[in-house]
Amino acid sequence: MAALDEGEQLAKENKSKHTLSPPTLLKLKNALTVLRQKLVDQLAEATSQPFTRDAELRSDILAIKKLGDGPRAHTLLLLNSHHQQALQRGMQSLHPSSTSHGGSAFSSGLSQLVFSTIAQTEAFALLFLKSFISSCRGSKSCY
C-alpha cells in the first residue's frame, strides 16, 4: 500500500510541477489501477481463508475499503465464512428439548446467540464506519 500511496502522490505532484509527460503519467495511473486491483484481490482472498483471525480480517477489510472498493469490503464482511462458521457452531450447540425446562433453556440459548451475533456485527460495523468517516475527512469522493 505504501508503494501505491507513493505513486499516487507522484501523480498529484505532477499536476503542479509537470515533471512527467502526459503518456508517462497515463502509464503511471494505469499501473496504479492494476496494482490496486491486484492488492484488493489478494486481500479479498486472504479474508476467505478459514485460518484468518478476526484482527487480520478487520485489517484486510479496512484496507480493501481504503483502496477504493468499499462495496466489496462490505460484502466480504457480511459473507465471511469465519463469522458464518462461528454462528453455525453456536446454532449446533443448541438442542431443543421436549421438556418445558429444556425448552426455556433452548430459547434462552438461542436469544443469547442472536443478540451476541448482533452485538459483534454492530461493533465491527461501528469500527468500519469510524474508519470510513476518518478516511473521508477532506475528501470530496465520499460525498
UniProtKB/TrEMBL annotation:
Region span, Disordered: 1-22
* Gene Ontology CC: one annotated term: exocyst
Q: Does the keyword Transport apply?
A: yes
Answer whether the UniProt record assigns the keyword Cytoplasm to this protein: no
Query: Which terms does the UniProt entry file under GO BP?
Result: exocytosis; Golgi to plasma membrane transport; intracellular protein localization
Q: Which domain of life is it from?
A: Eukaryota
Keywords from the named record:
Exocytosis, Transport
Recorded hits in InterPro entries, A to Z, give:
Cullin_repeat-like_dom_sf, Exo84
Q: Which family does it belong to?
A: Belongs to the EXO84 family.
Q: What is this protein called?
A: Uncharacterized protein
Native species: Corchorus capsularis (Jute)
Phylogenetic placement of the source organism: Eukaryota, Viridiplantae, Streptophyta, Embryophyta, Tracheophyta
